[in-house]
Structure formats: structure tokens, C-alpha cells
Amino acid sequence: MNVPLPDVPEVRVVGLPQLTTGFDLVERLDLAMHLKVHGPLEPMTGERLAELAETISLRGRGGAGFPFGKKLRAVAKASIRRGVRPVVVINGSEGEPACRKDTVLLNRAPHLVLDGALLAAEALGARTLVVAVTRNSTEISLRAALAERGLSDRRGQQLRARVVRTPERMVSGEASSVIRAANGGPALPPGRRERAAETGVGGSPTLLSNAETYAQLAVAARIGPRRYGHTGLPNEPGTVLLTVSGAVARPMVVEVPTGVPLRYVLEMAGAPPLPQGVLTGGYHGNWIDAVSSHNAVISRESLATVGGALGAGAILPIGPDTCPLGESLRIANWLAAETAGQCGPCKLGLPAAAGGLSDVLNGGGPAALEALRQVTQAVKGRGACKHPDGSARFLLSTLSAFTDDLAAHVLDGGCGRETVGVLPLPAPGYQDLEESIPSGEKLAVDWTLCQGHGLCADLVPELIRLGADGYPALADAAVPVHLRGRAQRAVRRCPALALRIEQPPAEQRPALPATHRRALGSGRG
């Protein structure tokens, strides 16, 4: 039952809107309507802007939660020390299937995001603005917004602005991937840790944050820290954008003040009254149980207290009619296939961890559980980017949150429930690094021919691993286009001719993307 989220789902608000002001009037706020709704924005010095960010405790809303004021000061300091102008980057690359808040902002309120980024650019003396996006609708909206402001990448302009398209992949939204794409390379982590504030786009100090962070900055700059602080909790003032999906009647993006009970947000979306668990923070986040979801409020601190995470603002409940370990295995397989293939913990560790969870579900017993714990722990802290750490966090959280189901699978052969597939994943053939035409292909084995040579697992370990019996075990995931070449090589190299790539039925094949521009839909209902 996997149903991918639309680009722009239904948008709701609790209390008075700030980021979503004007959404009840039009589907997209062009520049004229944006100024009518929000009013003009006066420039600020770098020191005043940093003080504003610190006063309202503004942290990055992309997942890491780094203090924005501290990041702003670091970029300014590096720029002055090196005598070069910095670069400002809006990270709108939402490659995670469960997140749509930045996409909603960039599609419906692009000028609010641009306001915050241009405010920072003016304060820092930046002459380059880069916006990274993943989706067609978002790119169309951003290019239209830049044109409305007379911004482009032409030489001679005081500020050069450009849009960079990144593939719809989990690793593409990582900061170093965005910078590498902006520098003309692939949207992959470079394999070495570098601070964007020191060396980013073009080697210059770079201020990089996600779309919601810049939008929050623009709101606070207009209304001031005192009025901004009247909404939400004293230690985490303002509102938060959440993407609520999973076992809900109405997937939505909702703007809520911090301090609102999580259970209220779940009720609004039509979640089960007593969910088995709620995944907080997205697919690099943590599960919390029904009791914790009932007691928690929307805030970084409150969710952390009950073992959850605000992260990128994704909230995903699951109901009592599905196997939580089976649901988690679907995500683990997808996370394993999302590897950049550049380091052992990601290329080998994540497929091994997903395979370990599959072994647990398929009757591997205590030995399989212990092996899963060991391989997951071994992945942590050793990757070239944060993808292995986030994926390991998700897996370890799964084992901690669903102990009864885990015991049923380890000791009794299963929990007796099927996997419904309520957690959203991309449509077959999500975008790849070089082309955006989907494939939807899957690997399959003819077991009457397979002789267990194991060459396939060596060639594409992201999708195939060898089981305890020496025969291949396939990840239940579509072949990503960026792995298609190696999958085809594995098929050709199979000595027994047992491996093949299956095409999806014609009715399930996604249509090719349209070449003409289309008006944005409402995303409502």
C-alpha cells in the first residue's frame, strides 16, 4: 500500500499562521501578493541579524538543529579573515519521502524563503545565492520567484542567483552533497569532512540552511523578537512546520506553535487513537511508543525527553493492524539502497543491517538478533556522511521501541500481522544523479537455476546479500537508477543465468515527466 506523498499536500495551521500566512487566499504567493500579506522587509547588519537569531533561539530546521546565529557568525568571521565574499545557499533538497514542508514553502511561499536568504546575503556582503531543489514543481516555482525579483545568474548583477537541481535521494540533501552539486559535481558527499562555513561553494565560506530556517528568519525580522516570542514555548519560541503521514486519514503539512500536544496533531490528521508507535524526525529519526506520543508536546526538548526527535519535522504514526518490524524493514531496505556507495559502513554495513533485520523477521532467532545489533553498532560513527549514522539510529530505535513484537519474532516465529506498507516511499524509479526518467525495475532470482556462486552480492551489495545458506537474499526495493548499471552487470555475470531484472507492469510504470510547465495544484483535500 505504499502511496508516495504529493509534492504539495494539504496544509493546515494550529493557531495564527506565520509561515503559512496567505495560504487561505491563494495557492502561491507571487511577489505582489507576498508584499501585501507580509509587508516590506528592511535590511539588517550582520550583528543585528545574528543577535535576532540568538534571541529567538533559531536553530536549523533541516534535521541537525545547529544554532543559526552561531553559523552566521562563523561564516562572517571566515569571510573577513580570508578577505573573500561568502555564498548563501538555500537547501530545498528534500530527498526524504516523508518530508514535504520545505517543498510546500518553496512552492507556495517562495518569496518568504528568499526574504530570509537575501537578508542574510545583504548582512554578510554575499554576492552569490544558490537554491538547491529536487522536484520539478519546486524548480518552476523558484525560477518564477527569482524572475519576479529580477534575479538571475547573469554577470554584472550585484547578486547572482541560480537554482541547482539535485536528485530525489536521501544523501542529496546532506549539506556537503548540496555544496558539491553547486560546484558542478555529483550530489554526493565528498567523503571528507569540511565545514561549509570555512570552505563551501567555490571554496568560499558558505551559509547553508534549509528553506524553513530562512522563512523563520524573515518572519522574525518583520515582527521582531518580542512579538515572535509570544508564540510557542519560552525556550523554543515560534512555530514549527510538520509533515504528518503514515497511518493517517489525511497526510498534511501543518504549522503549529511549539508546545502544542503531539496527540492533537495526530488527531487532526486522523491517526489511530492508540498508535503502536510514532516515528519522529523522519527516517533518520526515532520511534516513540503510544504513551510517549500521548504525553509529548511539539518541541525539540520534549520529544528528546521521551526518546523522540524533531529532526526534519516528519511525524509518522502506525496503527495496530500492521507489523512494526515489517514496516521498519521496508524503510531499512530503502535506506540501504540510498547509499552513495563511497564508504564501507554505508555500502556494506547498511545492506547487512537491513538483511539482519530480515533474518530476525524470518525466524533467525536470538543469534540473528545479536548479529543485527552488532552490525548496526559497527556502522555508527564511521561513515563519510551522516546517512549511516541516521540509518543506524532508526534501526536501533526500532529494536528499542517494539520489544514485544521483537520477542514474538525471535521466540515465537512472528507476531501474526502482515506488513501493510503505511510508511511512504518514493514511486518506483525515483530520480537519479544523471537523469530523471524513472525505471521501476526489480531484481529477481530463478531459484531453480541459482547455484549460490555469490557474484551478484559482490557487484551490488546494496540490493543483494548472501544469506546464512550462501544463497542470495534480495532487498524488497526497486532498483534505483543510480544502481542500474551494476545490477545489469550482476545479471550478465551470473554463471547460472539465474538473476534477471523485471520490468513493472505497464499500468504501474510511471509516466515520463511532462516537458511543459503546469500550474501548481492546490494540494488540498
UniProtKB/TrEMBL annotation:
Signal peptide: none annotated. Residues 56-217 form the NADH-ubiquinone oxidoreductase 51kDa subunit FMN-binding domain. Residues 330-409 form the NADH-ubiquinone oxidoreductase 51kDa subunit iron-sulphur binding domain. Transmembrane segments: none annotated. The keyword Metal-binding applies. Residues 181-204, 505-525 are annotated as: Disordered. Residues 243-274 form the Soluble ligand binding domain. The keyword Flavoprotein applies. Its cofactor is [4Fe-4S] cluster; FMN. Keywords: 4Fe-4S, Flavoprotein, FMN, Iron, Iron-sulfur, Metal-binding. Pfam families: Complex1_51K, Fer4_15, NADH_4Fe-4S, SLBB. SUPFAM superfamilies: 4Fe-4S ferredoxins, Nqo1 FMN-binding domain-like, Nqo1 middle domain-like, Nqo1C-terminal domain-like. Belongs to the complex I 51 kDa subunit family. This is NADH-ubiquinone oxidoreductase-F iron-sulfur binding region domain-containing protein. It comes from Streptomyces pakalii. The lineage of its organism: Bacteria, Bacillati, Actinomycetota, Actinomycetes, Kitasatosporales.
